[in-house]
UniProtKB/TrEMBL annotation:
Domain of life: Bacteria
InterPro entries: LysR_HTH_N (IPR000847), LysR_subst-bd (IPR005119), WH-like_DNA-bd_sf (IPR036388), WH_DNA-bd_sf (IPR036390)
Protein family (similarity comment): Belongs to the LysR transcriptional regulatory family.
Designated name of the protein: Transcriptional regulator, LysR family
Taxonomy of the source species: Bacteria, Pseudomonadati, Thermodesulfobacteriota, Desulfuromonadia, Geobacterales
Residue ranges constituting the HTH lysR-type domain according to the UniProt record: 1-58
MF annotations from Gene Ontology: DNA-binding transcription factor activity; transcription cis-regulatory region binding
The species this protein was found in: Citrifermentans bremense
UniProt xrefs under PROSITE patterns: HTH_LYSR
C-alpha cells in the first residue's frame, strides 16, 4: 500500500472535499484527485461518494479507511519507538530519495569527520508530503525535498538549492542515441518505474500533461521498488527509465548510460531546504546545514554560516 495515497484518502474524508484536503496536504487539488483515482483503480471500486456537497466514503471506502488508520497508527508507533531508542537527539533529518542516494553519503561523511563523535543523527527518506508533515509535527529538525507539484511552503522557512534534473536514460546501443527526442520515440519502450505514485512517476505524469498527453501511453511499464535493480536492467538493455540525473551521474560519466531529454518537457524539479520558523539552530545543526550548501559550492545564508 502507498501510505501517501492512504493519508490523502483519510484527509479527503475528514475535510469533506478535495480542495480542503489539498490545503491540508500542501498539494494541488488535482494531485489529491489523482491519488484517490490511483487507489480506486487499484482496488476496482469507488471509494468516495462525490454526489453530495460533502465527500463521504462508500462501504468499500470505509473498510479501506479503517485498515489505513490501523496501518498509519502502526507507522506512528514505530516512529515513536525509534525516537525512544535515542536518549538524546542532535539532528533528525528527512530528505527525498534522490538527494539521499546521490548526495547524503558524502555530506554525512564530511560532517562526521569534522564534528564530535558524540553527535547523534537520524536520517529518514520520505516523499515531500511526509517530510513536511514530520517537520510540522517536530519529528524532523529539517527536511530537504525535490518536488514536482505546487507545495505550499509559506508556514516554513525554505531555502533554494540547485534544481534536480529528471532525464530518461538508456544503454548505449539500445537504439536511442539522440540527446533530445520526441516523446513518441519512447512510448513503445519498456519503461521502468520505482512505483506508482513515486516522485519520478508523478513528475512524468505532470510533464506528459503539459504536452496534452497521458503517462498511460507508456503501455509497457514495469514497476519495481528497487532503484539499483532498475539501473542494472536499463544498463543491460532491457528498457529505459525516468530518473534523477544525480542518481545515475557516475554511470553517465563512465558511458554506461545515455541521457535523453524530451521535446516540451521541463526537466527541472525545485530542490529546497526547509525548516520550522521557530527552529533552534544549535551548533551541530548549523554545521550540518552549512555542509549541505558547501557541497553544492554555495555560501550558506548568513544565518547558517558558522564562519567568523
Amino acid at each position: 500500500m502507498d501510505l501517501v495515497n492512504l493519508k490523502t484518502l483519510i484527509e479527503s474524508v475528514e475535510c469533506g472535499s478535495f480542495s480542503k484536503a489539498a490545503e491540508t496536504l500542501c498539494v494541488t487539488q488535482s494531485a489529491v484527485s489523482r491519488r484517490i483515482k490511483i487507489l480506486e483503480d487499484r482496488y476496482g471500486h469507488l471509494l468516495l461518494d462525490r454526489s453530495g456537497p460533502v465527500l463521504k466514503p462508500t462501504p468499500v471506502g470505509e473498510l479501506l479507511i479503517e485498515k489505513a488508520r490501523q496501518l498509519l497508527e502502526l507507522e506512528q508507533e514505530f516512529v515513536h519507538q525509534i525516537q525512544a531508542l535515542k536518549q538524546k537527539k542532535k539532528i533528525s533529518f528527512c530528505c527525498t530519495p534522490p538527494f539521499g542516494i546521490s548526495y547524503l553519503p558524502d555530506i554525512f561523511t564530511r560532517f562526521m569527520a569534522d564534528s564530535s563523535q558524540n553527535t547523534e543523527l537520524q536520517f529518514v527518506f520520505d516523499m515531500p508530503e511526509g517530510a513536511l508533515k514530520g517537520l510540522r509535527e517536530r519529528i524532523f529538525d529539517l527536511v530537504l525535498i525535490e518536488y514536482c507539484e505546487d507545495l505550499d511552503l509559506q508556514e516554513f522557512d525554505s531555502y533554494p538549492l540547485p534544481d534536480d534534473e529528471m532525464v530518461f536514460v538508456s544503454a548505449p546501443g539500445y537504439g536511442i542515441d539522440a540527446p533530445l527526442v520526441e516523446v513518441d520515440a519512447l512510448l513503445s519502450q519498456r519503461l521502468y518505474c520505482k512505483k506508482s505514485g513515486c516522485c519520478a512517476r508523478r513528475f512524468l505524469e505532470k510533464s506528459m500533461q503539459t504536452l496534452g498527453r497521458d503517462a498511460a501511453e507508456f503501455s509497457n511499464t514495469v514497476f519495481f521498488d528497487d532503484i539499483p535493480f532498475i539501473i542494472r536492467a536499463v544498463m543491460a538493455g532491457d528498457g529505459i527509465t525516468f530518473i534523477s540525473r544525480s542518481i545515475v551521474a557516475s554511470s553517465l560519466e563512465r558511458g554506461e548510460l545515455i541521457s535523453h531529454q524530451v521535446q516540451g518537457f521541463d526537466p527541472s524539479r525545485p530542490r529546497r531546504l526547509v525548516l520550522r520558523r521557530e527552529c533552534t539552530l544549535d551548533p551541530a545543526l548549523l554545521d550540518f546545514i552549512e555542509g549541505i550548501f558547501r557541497h553544492f559550492s554555495l555560501a550558506p545564508p548568513p544565518q547558517f554560516s558558522t564562519t567568523v
